Amino acid sequence: MTALDQQAQSPFNPATDRVGRVLCFAAHPDDIDFGAAGTIAAWTAAGVEVSYCIMTDGDAGGFDPAHRADIIALRDAEQRRAAKLVGVTDIHYLHQRDGYLEPSHEVMKEVVRLIRKIRPDVVLSMHPERNWRRIQKSHPDHLAVGEAVTRAVYPALENPFAYPELTESGLEAFKLPWLWLYAGPEERENHFVDVTGQVEAKLAAIHVHVSQHPDVEAMEATVRHGMRANAARAGLPEGNSAEAFHVVAINGPGTIAGF
């Protein structure tokens, strides 16, 4: 199968499928910037409302022992500055412990709560499947985010009898149209976004996370190379850059309740 054949399998059509509001889930501050900041910058420039939910505080991150006492506040400040660079100001935290995240009902209920509150057209999340080609993409917290979000969007999100206390509080069941997954196995990726015009915004956002990058030059070179490789797999012109996603249609015209 060629890259173009793979891309054609995406159920999402940018020309016809509306995106007005997006909710992005990540395990740690900086995950979203590596995975999707270019796409997010393009969305916000087009008037799309984008919110972030970071499940942990990133308290186990960093390299400098001198930062330990202030690492949570430091990483929050980094994430908020990075988000503003790509047009995002609405950031939520679940305050789970970094390195200990699990797809528990406690976490899933909070995911359902936030999605029902924001009611987005797209939920963007880390992928629940391990990437064996680059294991660094598959931190256990990343996989836990993907599993918790995937379990939450079906069936709990659209079932008024799942977590009934949410319905009782006024957060009505909601049918999510689209789930976009990032940082997963390449063989699952079926949708590519040309972010050639957003490369510098993405890199600027990543550079804000200075507490996490002991080798800035190597980091930037790796990110640029990865985006160019994505573009090549998508069949885009040489020199272009892209971000890659596994897009799943959750509810659409052909969806039948319960199926």
From TrEMBL:
Gene3D superfamilies, alphabetized: LmbE-like
Single GO molecular function: hydrolase activity, acting on carbon-nitrogen (but not peptide) bonds, in linear amides
Biological-process GO terms, alphabetical: glycoside metabolic process
The entry's keywords: Zinc
InterPro entries named in the record: GlcNAc_PI_deacetylase-related (IPR003737), LmbE-like_dom_sf (IPR024078)
Classification via PANTHER family: LMBE FAMILY PROTEIN, N-ACETYLGLUCOSAMINYL-PHOSPHATIDYLINOSITOL DE-N-ACETYLASE-RELATED
Name recorded for this polypeptide: PIG-L family deacetylase
Organism, scientific name: Arthrobacter nitrophenolicus
Lineage summary: Bacteria, Bacillati, Actinomycetota, Actinomycetes, Micrococcales
